[in-house]
Specification:
Layout: E1 3-6, E2 17-20, H1 22-29, H2 37-51, E3 56-60, H3 61-82, H4 89-93, H5 97-117, E4 119-121, H6 130-135, H7 142-154, E5 157-159, E6 173-176, H8 179-183
Parallel strand pairs: 1-6, 2-3, 2-5, 3-4, 5-6
Length: 185
């Protein structure tokens, strides 16, 4: 059974290895996400404690891809509301100054902040059973299922606000401020 713990009461332990889900990184760094300030505060407080403890924070290429893609899609939606000529992400947005500005913002955040506090993690694709990952798709999306198996393999504590993580039981540890996730476990 998954072990779900409240991020506000959990104290980082020496040697803890954290894997922050894309939603948490977006809370911290994506200014156009319009995220709940109280939710951000809870995770930010934990991040500061983790940084000041003898712990490690990991990020995978899959999470980086999720962050970049979500950030660009959020910006596209924002631009599209203001500019009627901006209809198609690939045809209109990618060649626009808005896109290039967003890419520059993303690069700056990764290079000056996010990658300074996290360590890239090998996705271990050759060691994780794809059939096990695919068997969880009736409950959660592919990436979240993959993160479950990666966390199990590398003994990572997943930090997320995504309630879907409760849908798959792989015996991992989850840190969250999401009341649905906390109440369901």
């Amino acid at each position: 059974m998954n072990k779900v713990m409240d991020i506000e009461t959990y104290a980082p332990q020496d040697g803890d290895k954290y894997f922050f889900d894309a939603n948490i990184w977006l809370y911290f760094y994506c200014p156009i996400g319009n995220y709940n300030k109280n939710t951000i505060r809870k995770y930010d407080s934990f991040l500061k404690k983790a940084i000041n403890s003898n712990t490690a924070i990991y990020i995978s290429s899959l999470v980086i891809s999720e962050i970049v893609n979500r950030w660009l899609r959020l910006d596209f939606s924002r631009v599209k509301r203001k500019d009627v000529s901006m209809r198609d992400f690939k045809q209109d947005y990618r060649s626009s100054l808005h896109y290039h500005s967003a890419v520059k913002d993303i690069q700056t955040v990764f290079n000056t902040q996010l990658l300074k506090i996290s360590t890239p993690l090998d996705d271990r694709a050759t060691e994780i059973s794809l059939s096990d990952v695919l068997s969880g798709l009736d409950k959660i999306d592919f990436n979240d299922c993959y993160y479950h198996h990666l966390a199990k393999l590398d003994n990572l504590l997943i930090v997320t606000n995504d309630a879907d993580f409760a849908e798959l039981d792989t015996g991992i540890s989850i840190l969250t401020a999401n009341q649905k996730l906390l109440n369901d476990n």
